[in-house]
Amino acid sequence: MRLDKFDLNLLIALELLLEEQNVTRAAQRLNLTQSAMSAALARLRLALNDELLVPHGRRLVATPHALALAPLVSEAIRNLRVLISGATAFDPATSDRKFEIAASDYISTVLLSPVLRELKAEAPAIEINIVLPTRETSATLEDGKLDFQLTPEQFVSPNHPAELLFEERHVVVGWAENPVFAGEMTERAFLSCGHVVVRIQGVPTFAERHMLEGDDRRRIEMTAPSFSIVPWLLPGTNMLALMHERLAKVYLPLLPLAMRPAPITLPPMREMIQYHAARATDAGLIWFKDRLMAAARTR
Q1: What CATH number has the domain bearing residue 10?
Q2: DSSP calls for the chain
Q3: Which residue range is the domain that position 70 belongs to?
Q4: pTM above 0.90, yes or no
Q5: 92 in a domain, yes or no?
Q6: Could you tell me if residue 63 is inside a domain?
Q7: Same domain flag for 146 and 287
Q8: pLDDT at position 1
Q9: How confident is the model at residue 8 (pLDDT cuts 50, 70, 90)?
């Protein structure tokens, strides 16, 4: 088939069909009806002269040809996205662009949430999709499926530009009526209590990584899957947590909590913003990045 006769939108459908191996789920991701996605699959089968997905019991399974096509399709889509985003002018007042951002609930709370009103006032039609970081985040950025990842410096990819948003320190937070807060927060007092730690999909966070690399003598009593859950777990207990100072200050007015400087040595956390090297001149990304960096400086 000649390229000028091929609907390039079918590549998007093919990528999702191969990822999901399910017509209904692929249709949902593209906001299409199931019948429309089934029609797209039929057109793809005809154009590529292969069944692509074949029934196996209640499931669909990719054919060998489809499996061979999958990385080529993803690369083609990535290159097309880079071409389009780099060539298109960006007017925030009229743009309906969708920004894909990988960010923890911590950085979403202390930076993205406060700046959201300003972003939407300047660009009312943009869409912001925030996903939690995973082990595959750097690979997703590499594939061109993310606009930004907001992450501590230790987790950035060495292959793409990253800029400093701000530095953050960690503090000790616990229930305000915990007797340990009646005196000085010494290392001995800190270690006398049980602790809540955060591990996102089993991966140690910035603070946990540094604790594990040293002489970690804490008694871990609870593990939480996100940062914003931790403050709610502390009232009424004698547990402590190492928290980002900015996040702790968000919750101190809301819950009966106390905060003290950490009695152990933790380096400042350098929170970075990273984007794909091929998008360094993308006007939309530059606009979004500049707004976040300005907000980081003023907060």
Answers
A1: 1.10.10.10
A2: --GGGS-THHHHHHHHHHHH--HHHHHHHTT--HHHHHHHHHHHHHHHTS--EEEETTEEEE-HHHHHHHHHHHHHHHHHHHHHHHHS---TTT---EEEEE--HHHIIIIIHHHHHHHHHH-TT-EEEEE---TTHHHHHHTT--SEEEEEGGGS-TTS-EEEEEEE-EEEEEETT-GGGGS---HHHHHHSEEEEEEETTEE-HHHHHHHHS----EEEEEESSTTTHHHHSTTS--EEEEEHHHHHHHTTTSSEEEEE-SS--PPEEEEEE--GGGTT-HHHHHHHHHHHHHHHH-
A3: 3-87
A4: no
A5: no
A6: yes
A7: yes
A8: 53
A9: confident
